[in-house]
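(Fold this chain)
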Amino acid sequence: MPIKGMCPYYRYEKAGVTYCACGSFHFPDREARRAVVYAYCAHPTNFAKCPFKCAMDDFYERSLV
């Protein structure tokens, strides 16, 4: 089932792999993936606390300088 991610870096999921602008993530099972994706990627406010989103924000801020 596709999810609409709140995070602007979330891309898609395919064959059990979650893709974002920071990389591709393999989880040990569906419950582990759900815990992370729903806690960060698809959460209305917590997506801003994701360490990968913070790293990507910093990367893009440095690229603009």
In short: The helical segments are 30-41, 51-64. The two ends are 39 Å apart (CA to CA). Residues 54 and 60 are 10 Å apart (CA to CA).
